[in-house]
Amino acid sequence: MQGLTENIIALERFAPDLKRELNKEIRGILAPIVLEAKSYLPSNGEIHPSGWQKGGFKRFNGIGPLSQDQTRGFIAYDAERAKSGIKQTAATSKKNGTGFRNTYGIVQRDAAGAIFETAGRGSSASRSRSKTSRSRNPQASQHFIGVIQREHGVLPTARGEGKDKGRAVIRAVDRNRFKALNAIREAVDKASAKAQSRVDSIISQREV
Amino acid sequence: MAIVERIITVYNDKGSKKAVKDLAGLEKKFANAGKKIAKAMGAAAVATAALAVKLGVDSVKAAIADEKSQALLANSLRNTTGATDSAIAATEAWIDQTQRAYGVVDDELRPALAKLAAMTGSVTSAQKLLGLAIDVSAGGGVDLGAATNAVTKALQGNYKALKNLGVPITDAMVKSKDLNAVLQLTAKTFAGAASARANTFEFRMKRLGIAFDEAKESLGKALMPALEQLFAILITKVIPAIQTFLAENGDKLVGVMTGALKAVVGFGYAVFKVFQFVAKHKTIFVTLGAIFAATFVAAKVIAFVTAITNLVKAYKAIRTAALGAAAAQAAATGGVSVAAAVAGVAAFAATLGGLYLVVNQANNAMDAMEGTGEEVEFTFDGLNGTTEDFLASLKGLNVDLGKTTTKTKEQIAADLKLIATKKLLLALAKFGVKPISETDPTQLEAARLNLIKQSNLAEAARIQAIIENIAQQVKLNEAVARYNDLLGVVADQVISAEEVALLAKKWGITQEAVVAYTTAIFATNDAKLSPAEIDLLAKQWGVTKQQAEIYLDFFKAINDGKLDPTEVNTLMTKWGLTNAQVIDYAKKISEGVTPSALWPTPGNQAAQSWRDALAALNAYIAATQATITATLPPSLVVPTDVTAKSKAEIAALIKAREDLPISGPNDPRVLYGGGRVASDGSISYFDPARLGMTSGGIPKLATGGIVNSPTIAMIGEAGPEAVVPLNRMGSMGGANVNVVINGSVTTEGDLVNAIRNAILQGQNNGQAITKTAIQL
Q: Cβ contact (<8 Å) for A206 and B201?
């Protein structure tokens, strides 16, 4: 979005108050995307593998071999937590070596939600094991991914930045990206126009 | 673990490495171009369009490479598919469209298309397969060349490459050599991959870069002919020819010039300096041409117009500087360093004249073009021919080319500072901001002028305020003066038509306005205003009739200096106001401030005028100790048979009348002043007959009489008489004193004092005093 980000930076530098207003407005723009992303998350009853849901696995107590209904810490899927983990990151701004970085986006902060988001997206090479597994269930990950892909859709293999696909957050963002961009652009343009008029008024006082 | 899907990101060095690399490269190129141009041209060129210059220079290179690429593809398509020129052109358009859509550069697309066309023998099929290859490239994560190879091999029956890229080709399909099935499966596998990739961040940037490059190439194509021609003229003809000319001629020609020839040669030298300048700064002229086209391609029409205007100014400045410097040098050297040839003087002058015409023509064209924003076309044909003629004839002159200007450290530092400043300006210009540079003399001058302007404006505002204040004072004084005038003419409680005319003349207003003003002054004292009078007031004040009525009601209510509860209730009831509103409104009227926000300005002015007039009246009353009753006529009596006289005229008349001799017994001074006129015309204030004087000469006042001056009289001659001063007549025969005691009387002394005070007050007021009406 050439020009848009420059405007955002300019607002940050020259009109921080307008930038704060802009952030508020963009939060409003991103809110429906967050809701849509949450709607893509299955409920606990709909998640597959079904044993992944909260309470589906029993925590391994360290005694004896790990049975198939036990887990050593694999995060259980909890729809509520996964939904509440989806948030928007609006106008996080921090200085770095060259200036400012502004990011508007949607984030999934729940681990299980993130697993659901991207499970199966890695290439087969990334899933290959260099050593022979000593696990009693060495195919567990493949089974897990297989079930997810069967029940919740296959994601194309991720290769490189920008090609990522997802099931909830990324899906919702992809569906609304241009709409959101246009809305953000309008909001930025509006704020920029305000800033510009402010600058113009200052300049006009100095112009002959 | 968190998944972050960004919608807006900002480039910096920690962003996408690929994208940053691309952008950094572009920025570096632009910056370098800016530095070069800054050194070459200084501030003007940089301010005009360093970016455009860089675009122009790069565009030529890009256009050359693109032309080569296009030529190769066209040749291949002709050879393999027998494509026509129109088909090739359509293919180029398709390639352009494809590269913009999918972010794959034409330099990759053309070889791939040529390869597929060679395989299929059809441009159409090649295009379809190329589309498939792009999908394969995107889905398989390989470059287009590899994907094209895979497709090509598939066309040859080798599906292994496609299979390796992820197409689930079965052994049965391999065995059956079912190419269509394989291609369909491939298409299905990678369907939409290219589109998806094109929308990724990386490829959006690539597409942006492609569009940029295409613009540069288009620009370069437009520039190449002009640049070729320009270089051909400057480098291959002008400079070598001049150098040759200089080498062939030396000092042998010195001293053979005539005076006339010196002038011609001086001009020739000046023209030569132009060429020298062009040769030395040929980069500038190349970039100048580039600016035209680059600006036109890369920016909007407005920017183009602006750039053209700036460019013309810049060029004219350069031209003027060059010519000026050359002329100055020529004048300083007096042509000593310039030798002239004896031979070919006429041809020399003629060609110089031709060259002059060309230069002048160019100048005129620029003058005409300045501000119009029309596209500029440099035509060098005329210059070319004239230059050749000029050079062919200029055999015998030798001119020192001079030394190349080198910059000092200070100049370089200044240039760097200028670049930094311009960079900041450009950065701000991205946001449409036009900041005021603190280093640009032009802008500083503008700022200085602005300060002067602001100062002038402030001074003007101050003077205007003073003038307005004076005007208000004058207006106020006029109001007071008018009221005083009015008091003078209404002393008899009647305003004659002549008085109205006199006032109108004195006040410089119409008679109607005088009547309206007078009505307004008197109306508020009149308990019963006629609707016509209220209308007149409303019209005079510029308010509605209702507003005038409200104002008058309030004014009458507070005219006695207080606001009774009864008055408040009346006003509340009549105008539907609350108690607080009534009090507030009355307070504002009594203070002479804006009675209400509902009051328009004219009404307030009228009210203020009335307040001023009232104040003048009070001052007048205080000064004269006069008592003016409010028994003015409800409507003005305007007689028509009275001659208008001013106060001064009336005073003069009175004085003149006093100086007149007494006309006779009926003269008022005799009738009321006690004098008489004798038969001989002498004046006597003693009329024995009228005063009942006896013949003895001493007046007898048994029947009463009035004595105004020391008089010897006989009294008591007919019985008891009382001699009473006229001003004590009120107490004669017994007076009635009504004593009203407010408060309590506790002692006899208090009662005596109260009664005495009341009697004295009554006596002072001329009241009758009796003993029968005492009430405690």
A: no
* Omega prior to A49 cis, within 30 of 0: yes
Inspect the interface and report whether the beta carbons of B430 and A6 lie closer than 8 Å. Answer: yes
CA B95 to chain centroid:
51
Q: Does the global pTM surpass 0.90?
A: no
Q: Answer for the pair B108, B145: CB distance below 8 angstroms, yes or no.
A: yes
- The CA distance from A32 to A88, in Å, is 10
A106 — contact with chain B (CB < 8 Å)? yes
- Give the pLDDT of residue B296: 39
How confident is the model over A135-142, as a mean pLDDT? 76
**Please, what are the averages of pLDDT over each run of 10 residues along chain B (776 residues)?**
68 44 49 44 33 47 70 79 82 83 82 84 85 84 85 84 82 80 83 77 64 62 54 52 44 34 44 50 48 41 42 43 39 31 30 41 45 38 42 41 51 72 63 54 59 72 77 71 69 69 78 71 58 70 73 72 79 82 74 48 52 59 45 40 56 64 59 51 49 52 67 69 64 53 68 74 63 45
Q: Round to whole Å and give the CA distance between B445 and B451.
A: 10
Give the gap in angstroms from C-alpha A66 to the nearest C-alpha of chain B: 25
Tell me which chain B residues have a C-beta less than 8 angstroms from the C-beta of A177. 7
Measured from the Cβ of residue B233, the count of other Cβ atoms closer than 10 Å reads 19
Distances (CA, A) of A154 to A119, A147, A150, A166, A176: 9, 10, 7, 9, 21
The residues in B 398-437 lying below 8 A from A, measured between CB atoms, are 430-436
* Residues A208, A140 contacting (CB under 8 angstroms): no
Query: Residue B131: helix, strand or coil by DSSP?
Result: helix
Contacts of A103 in chain B (CB under 8 A): 4, 6, 8-10
Q: Cβ contact (<8 Å) for A105 and B434?
A: no
The answer to whether B11 faces chain A, any CB pair under 8 Å, is: yes
For helices B201-231 and B43-81, give the axis angle rounded to 10 degrees.
100
Cβ contact (<8 Å) for B435 and A7?
no
How far is B236 from B187, CA to CA, in rounded Å? 56
Picking from A38, A155, A4, the residue whose alpha carbon sits closest to that of residue B7 is A4
A173 chain-B contacts, CB cut-off 8 A:
5, 7
